[in-house]
Amino acid sequence: MSTKQKLELNWIGKHKRPRLEPRILLEDKDLSYGDADSENLLIHGDNLLALKSLEQQYAGKIKCIFIDPPYNTGSAFGHYDDGVEHSLWLSLMRDRLESLQRLLHESGSIWISIDDNEMAYLKVLMDEVFGRGNFITTICWEKIYTLKNTAKHFSTMHDFILVYSKDINKFTMNQLPRTEKQNSNFKNPDNDPRGSWIDSAMHARNYYSKGTYEVISPSGNTFTPPPGRYWSVSKENFDALNADNKIWWGKDGKNTPRKKTFLTEVKQGIVPGTIWGHEDAGQNAEAKNEIKALFSDDGGVFITPKPEKLLQKIITIASNEGDFILDSFAGTGTTGAVAHKMNRRWIMVELGEHCHTHIAPRLKKVIDGKDNGGISKTVNWQGGGGFHYLRLAPSLLKKDHWGNWVINKEYNAEMLTEAMCKHMNFTYAPSQTQYWNHGYSTETDYIYVTTGSLAYEQLKVISEEVGTERTLLICCKAFMTEGAEFPNLTLVKIPRAILSKCEWDQDDYSFTLNVLSDSEQPDDIDYDEDTEGEEQL
Can you tell me the mean pLDDT for 240-265? Predict the structure, then answer.
């Protein structure tokens, strides 16, 4: 296959994309908690709509994304055939991944937990959305450490975590801290005042012309490198190390020389591996115990929550204090709880009712310092912080009795203004002194939203106040210019100005069949070979 050719994953409904309405977010102050200045957000609603609503403000700002999406094991689609099931799952994931890619910081990374059912398909899909060159690694996490003899074929003991960067050339990550187990290998049998050390061989197999000399131990024994090996330092450097007590000859001074390396000299960070055992990354049973400790009903709606140690490891590698962490499949709220304890800012999205029955109460316990489980003791968590509980606003437009799209009666003037700012790509920032200034797109371009009809005299006054150095977009019900031109004003009518921008009054983009067009029939998922080397949209 030539370098211009490309393998793509193809499925039923792939080319049908939802036209999402960028909803505004409304705060439920009864469920918000703690520090009112907190930037942490817990959003209740469809996660695809929520991601769309976040894009304007948070595009390019999220340092680490962790998601634990539905694994598509078949339980959600028992009455569909296998081909349709895969298609629905892939469409759901593709639409969300594209939005997540836009939210990710240029130096950030996305981590996705997945099992064998869709791992291979997700890898190819991630290659398409994030670019194959931005693939970092696949982690194998030991979620269960005991064999199940009831398994039909193999006892499944692991999940995968796919890791991608936004831009591999700008991607940054941290090493993991050294563990007590790793440091326990360092001893100090000679009571060296410089502290604990570990010894290593001083010879190697590679040829070294200055590495063939003879050395004499304190006991008088002579040593040369073993056959086929050479000292790894010159005689001059060896003598300097020996004089500095950095050569270990054994307790009685009779052994082959070994070099001492002090704990203070080694890297204090460890490069992460790709096999994560349950000892340092937790496992399913541990996660369930964490949930049971938090909720009297044991969080029964959650089958496979993730342990806090797993998220701690990911967040340690992928971010620093103050960075934004995002989880759009919040589940039990573990990502936010761990990010909070690690002094990161976080955003979580969850559609289910457990968003306010389980996640919000869990975070309140974290803030109050009453959550002593998970990583709390490890990070010495004492409490503090806060979060805002937000809900997706209803659709801006709804049909009236005659089938015409009209402004939703649930919208007040403030909500309408904020929504129009989002639709017209303006930052909502109402002025306290200029009634016509509701937001801006640049330092000199502003927006004014009103449900009233503007007459010529009103437009003339507004134009004069705006002046020649600024421009203003006016969104109103109607206007009358009487043939006059106002070069600094742009006039549009609502809702006409936004009617064609998106799908209206659509609240659910979860696992539904609306990804399929009437003309498409279920086929097997396959790979399409793009012989022209062009993007298939």
Answer: 95
pLDDT in tens, 436-484: 999 999 999 999 999 999 999 999 999 999 999 999 999 999 999 988 9
- Rounded Cα distance between 164 and 188, Å, is 42
Q: Which residues are CB-neighbours of 44 under 8 A, at least 6 positions away?
A: 28, 349, 350, 351, 355, 356, 389, 390, 391, 392
Q: Which amino acid is at 321?
A: E
- pTM for the whole thing? 0.84
**How many CA atoms within 13 Å lie on the side-chain side of 164?**
24
SS3 232: coil
Backbone Cα Rg of the chain: 31
Q: What is d(CA 9, CA 148) in angstroms, rounded to the nearest whole number?
A: 34
Q: Which of 485, 464, 459, 484 lies closest to 474, judged by CA?
A: 459
Distance, first Cα to last Cα, the chain: 21
DSSP conformation letters of 349-380: EE-STHIIIIIHHHHHHHHHT---STTTTTTT
Q: Report how far residue 130's alpha carbon sits from residue 166's, in angstroms, rounded to the nearest whole number.
A: 7
Q: What is the number of helices (H) and of strands (E) in the chain?
A: 13, 31
> Nearest Cα to 84, choosing from 450, 62, 92?
92
**Domains, in order of start, for the chain:** 28-177+271-392 (3.40.50.150), 180-265 (no CATH), 397-498 (no CATH)
Cα–Cα distance for residue pair 202/212, rounded to 1 Å: 12
Please count the residues of the chain.
Answer: 537
CA 478 to chain CA centroid, nearest Å: 44
Give the residue among 391, 380, 323, 334 at the shortest CA–CA distance from 359: 334
Using the Cα atoms of residue 421, residue 60, residue 504 and residue 392 in order, give the sign of their dihedral: negative
Q: Are 417 and 446 in contact (CB under 8 A)?
A: no
What distance in Å separates the CA atoms of residue 387 and residue 349, rounded to the nearest whole number?
13
Q: Within 10 A of 99 (CB to CB), how many other CB atoms are there?
A: 22
- How far is residue 104 from each of residues 46, 165, 393, measured CA to CA in Å? 19, 9, 24
CB 231 within 8 A of CB 208: yes
